[in-house]
């Protein structure tokens, strides 16, 4: 580590601060490190161990982030520092040094919507992202647990989550500024040296995640925590198609012992990938999305389509086995309709 103090700092609210109104300016001020070499990262991150388990905020930035895009920055938020891992300047050597941590069961990665980040890590660096807490999934589970129904495709955005007073209550106005810049110049995250706006925006995407995680975990019951772990694992591998049906990925979290004795039958949750023949996706989606929306409303499962980022000829279904099979049958039915 360099002896000179880092020139960039930001406020990171600690999990122990939660429970009252979050005052961002009153949170501890921590350094932001720009990392181009593995030696600049904490040893406890680079060498995961059961004796030193961690939870960190996690996110990635890039150009058209997916298998064919470019992962430019990986953000890691610790309680006492934020690390911006520069995948462009550090390259494959730096990302390879991070691989054990990203695949480790001893390091919990708290992220909002892990699917495309995981896909980029897998296809660009051979990293199988594991042991995530996806705050987008957690939000939906809490809503369901508290009796509030969610409409199909009604996913909370990160900006929306930050604004929710139950979890953070912070207005994230700079996010829109960055979105405008990205629309004007999709290569925004490739430029070096990193500008003040890039550093601030990258840090803002992770600095609240541990605080939100702590607030969410306290609200989730045992059943929801299990669903959170399983669905996070399935979302991580969702777009990471391979030829061995994910046999080289870690096993899914088992049902906790305290739930096995309950009268409720816990159904296995699975990921199904359906191939859609050329020219048939339009039938699956329907006019203005009416067909796929009807299927989503009829099945208690998540149904995702690769879309422009790909793979465009596949449908991904995540949920309880019976609901997934129901969705499969309905989608196949749409394919053969005249």
Helix amount: 25-40%
Tally of contiguous helical segments: 13
Order of strands in the sheet with the most strands?
Answer: 1-2-5-4-3-6-7
Distance between the termini: 65 Å
Give the class-level CATH name of the largest domain: Alpha Beta
Overall average pLDDT? 91
Beta-strand fraction estimate:
15-25%
Gyration radius, in Å: 20 Å
CATH H-level name of the largest domain... which superfamily? Ribonuclease H-like superfamily/Ribonuclease H
Order of helices and strands: EEHEEEHEHEHHHHHHHEHHEEH
Strand element count: 10
Oligomer: single chain
- What form results from the Cα inertia axes? globular
Structural class, please? alpha/beta
Helix-strand layout with pairing:
Elements: E1 8-11, E2 29-35, H1 43-46, E3 54-63, E4 70-78, E5 81-86, H2 87-102, E6 107-111, H3 115-125, E7 132-134, H4 135-145, H5 158-163, H6 174-184, H7 196-204, H8 209-219, H9 222-237, H10 257-260, E8 269-275, H11 281-285, H12 290-298, E9 302-305, E10 314-320, H13 321-336
Parallel strand pairs: 2-5, 3-6, 6-7
Antiparallel strand pairs: 1-2, 3-4, 4-5, 8-10, 9-10
Helix pairs in contact: 4-8, 4-9, 12-13
Keywords: RNA-binding
Protein name: 3'-5' exonuclease
Pfam family, one: DNA_pol_A_exo1
């Amino acid at each position: 580590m360099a002896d000179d103090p880092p020139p960039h700092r930001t406020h990171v609210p600690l999990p122990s601060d939660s429970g009252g109104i979050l005052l961002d300016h009153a949170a501890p001020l921590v350094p932001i490190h720009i990392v181009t070499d593995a030696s600049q990262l904490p040893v406890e991150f680079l060498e995961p161990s059961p004796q030193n388990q961690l939870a960190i905020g996690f996110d990635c930035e890039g150009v058209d982030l997916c298998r064919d895009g470019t992962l430019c920055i990986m953000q890691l938020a610790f309680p006492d520092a934020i690390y911006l891992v520069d995948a462009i300047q550090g390259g494959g050597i730096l990302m390879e040094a991070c691989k054990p941590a990203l695949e480790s069961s001893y390091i919990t990665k708290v992220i909002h919507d892990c699917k495309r980040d995981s896909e980029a890590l897998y296809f660009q660096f051979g990293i199988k992202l594991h042991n995530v807490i996806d705050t987008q999934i957690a939000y939906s589970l809490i809503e369901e647990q508290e009796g509030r129904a969610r409409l199909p495709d009604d996913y909370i955005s990160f900006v929306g989550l930050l604004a929710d007073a139950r979890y953070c209550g912070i207005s994230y106005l700079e996010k829109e500024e960055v979105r405008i810049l990205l629309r004007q110049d999709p290569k925004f995250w490739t430029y070096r040296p990193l500008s003040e706006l890039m550093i601030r925006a990258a840090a803002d995407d992770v600095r609240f995640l541990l605080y939100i995680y702590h607030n969410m975990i306290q609200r989730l019951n045992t059943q929801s925590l299990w669903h959170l772990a399983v669905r996070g694992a399935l979302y991580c591998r969702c777009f990471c198609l391979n030829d061995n049906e994910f046999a080289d990925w870690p096993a899914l979290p088992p049902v906790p012992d305290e739930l096995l004795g309950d009268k409720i039958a816990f159904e296995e949750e699975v990921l199904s990938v359906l191939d859609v023949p050329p020219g048939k996706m339009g039938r699956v989606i329907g006019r203005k999305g009416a067909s796929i929306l009807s299927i989503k409303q009829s099945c208690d499962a998540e149904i995702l389509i690769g879309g422009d980022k790909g793979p465009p000829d596949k449908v991904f279904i995540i949920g309880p086995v019976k609901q997934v099979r129901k969705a499969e049958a309905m989608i196949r039915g749409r394919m053969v309709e005249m």
